[in-house]
Amino acid sequence: MLDPLGPYCDNITDYRLSYYLILAPVCNYAKGKWVVDDRRPLYSGFGCKQWLTPMWACSLMQRQDFAFEKLRWQPKGCEMEEFEGPKFLKRMQDKTLAFVGDSLGRQQFQSPMCMITAGKDRSDVLDVGNEYGLEPLDVKDPQTEYAMHLDRPPPFLRQFLHKIDVLVLNTGHHWNRGKLRANRWVMYVGGAPNTNKKIANMGRAKNFTIHNTVKWLDSQVPKHPHLKAFYRSISPRHFVNGDWNTGGSCNNTKPMSIGKEVLQEGSSDHAAVSAVRWTGVKLLDITALSQVRDEGHISRICITSSPGVQDCLHWCLPGVPDTWNEILFAQI
């Protein structure tokens, strides 16, 4: 019987090496607990007027309790690097961080502006939106409708993705018939108004869009090796006894009264998990850790709200979105 290695067998045996691969455990930042930290918040809601939308700066409203600002997220079994503005700016020097999403994405954008500046005014910050193809819609004409393409990313993202180093996408709570009618959005698929009744279902339309956007972004990652792409899981609502327009409320002001710990391994946002699975797009999982923070919403203190209407969707800032960004920064 012939030796398949032939006369080279002895040499191979003599010079054979053993390799041991030691992999550091990957931190599951979504698993952990909220702890009280007197060093918090990272900035003052009174001082960050340059960046915060007034209705989200609960310090400037009628809210009197600020215990919700004193919590820090502690991942289980691993440490999360302490956020420092100068260190973050050095890491992101000459790079672009983009948040693309809804009003909660806007909250996540305003949060790091306050975290980085410690709430201080900065005259050297410029609006560069037009350099990335961002143009405000003219919504004055009530007859004008706007195409909402479910199967393709927005033009500015396709055109300027090469200029972005860190991209955070999100969507979620605007997927309802009321929002579509109010904003005069029309679903488009294949460049034409959608006629597929299955996709016309709001839940399916949302998932269809998320999957298509992530799939496209995944196809772009190899072309842009510098790009770190994230899809942020959905931010939870905490309406009790109704919705925003039917008397729903979130009156709790005591931190951790419905829990402080998250022990589950997977994300609560199954649609997001499904979309990013086997792609180069990472999941920024904030759903479960935000679910136990019902006291952190704007609630009834917003001065622009109608009587009896509470905001149990958006968060007070400083607040929970700061933690989303701490987790994001730990991963970039």
From TrEMBL:
Q: Its membrane topology, per UniProt? A: Single-pass membrane protein
InterPro entries attached here?
A: TBL, TBL_C, TBL_N
Any idea where this protein resides? Membrane
Source taxon at top rank:
Eukaryota
Q: Does the keyword Ubl conjugation apply?
A: no
Q: Where is the Trichome birefringence-like N-terminal domain?
A: 27-79
Q: Which keywords, in A-to-Z order, does the entry hold?
A: Membrane, Signal-anchor, Transmembrane, Transmembrane helix
* Positions of the Trichome birefringence-like C-terminal domain: 82-124, 140-330
GO cellular component entries: Golgi apparatus; membrane
Keyword check for Membrane: yes
Give GO MF terms, alphabetically: O-acetyltransferase activity
Q: Which family does it belong to?
A: Belongs to the PC-esterase family. TBL subfamily.
Among PANTHER family, the record links this protein to:
PROTEIN TRICHOME BIREFRINGENCE-LIKE 16 (PTHR32285:SF235), PROTEIN TRICHOME BIREFRINGENCE-LIKE 9-RELATED (PTHR32285)
- Spell out the protein name for this chain: Trichome birefringence-like N-terminal domain-containing protein
